[in-house]
Write a structure and sequence with these properties.
This protein is of the alpha/beta class. The protein has ten helices and nine strands. The mean pLDDT is about 95. Bound molecules: glutamine. It comes from Larsenimonas suaedae.
Length: about 280
């Protein structure tokens, strides 16, 4: 079978199973052939070997069962960085690039200490380090598999960040930072969003929080105060409908300059605040 035929046929099969069927099949076939998506267009008459065809078929079958493309290829691009992914962490999402942009906008100093809590693949910490090489970037995660993955991504990309295993601040006694960022779990366990798409395959520990999804957001707002330098910022990603309650928590805990920022779709998704009040 030729490349163009294989793509067409697989895209038709996935049409009802994925909102991005055509993109999915291109990414999967490029992965099988070890080529770029552009290559597929240039060499659309290349004939697949039996082995290539069978590997591709197996991936299309897995994708049609709902498995995320990023777990099938083991990779996902974030902030222009190619990251390894696996089932022990959340798949980095374009939405979270908003958190990176907001962090770069709020801290202009070429040096400083930054912490990423619940780093997963290391996406946010690595994006920040790639933009501000002078920053000392630390990243923690509670899950061993995530710590190993973030470590490996940092090594492969040649970006020096310190990755430590820690349940939020537990292993960071006495450490203080100029900026703390996090994309914590913030989805309510009853949210219908969890029944569709990639989230069904992702670790619940990275997605779901008790107290209607606010448990970790509120915990971080309370406990970050002991780990921020004077005039340090805490910056959190949250759901589009959670801004008000998150700002309320920042207010009650005595922060100032509280502001919610929008993602590329215009949704309020990141709230940041200064500690302590000026
Ligand atoms: N924004 C992600 C989603 O909607 C969830 C990320 C998170 O819980 N931190 O799938």
């Amino acid at each position: 079978m030729r490349v163009d035929e294989a793509l067409e046929c697989a895209a038709t099969r996935l049409r009802d199973r994925s909102e991005s069927a055509r993109l999915d099949v291109e990414v999967l076939l490029a992965h099988v052939l070890g080529k770029t998506r552009t290559w597929l267009y240039t060499w659309n008459d290349h004939v697949l070997t039996q082995a290539e065809f069978e590997t591709f078929e197996a991936l299309i079958q897995a994708r049609s069962n709902g498995e995320p493309v990023a777990y099938l290829t083991g990779q996902r691009e974030f902030w222009g960085l190619m990251l390894d992914t696996n089932a022990s962490t959340l798949i980095p999402r374009p939405d979270t690039e908003t958190l990176v942009q907001c962090a770069l906008d709020v801290m202009h100093a070429p040096t400083g200490c930054v912490l990423d809590l619940g780093t997963g693949t290391g996406a946010v910490a690595l994006a920040l380090k790639s933009e501000r090489p002078g920053w000392q970037v630390s990243a923690v995660d509670r899950v061993d598999g995530a710590v190993a993955l973030a470590h490996e991504n940092a090594r492969r990309l040649g970006l020096e960040i310190a990755v430590t295993q820690s349940d939020w601040f537990k292993a960071l006694a006495g450490e203080r930072f100029d900026l703390i960022v996090s994309n914590p779990p913030y989805i309510d366990a009853n949210d219908a969003h969890l029944e569709r798409g990639d989230v069904r395959f992702e670790p619940h520990s990275a997605l779901i929080a008790s107290n209607e999804g606010y448990r970790d957001l509120e915990y971080l707002i309370e406990h970050a105060r002991a780990h921020l330098n004077p005039q340090g910022f805490l910056m959190l990603e949250h759901g589009f409908a959670q801004g008000e309650r998150v700002r309320g928590a920042f207010e009650r805990m005595g922060y100032s300059a509280i502001e919610t920022l929008k993602d590329l779709a215009g949704q309020p998704r990141v709230t940041r605040a200064l500690w302590p009040a000026r």
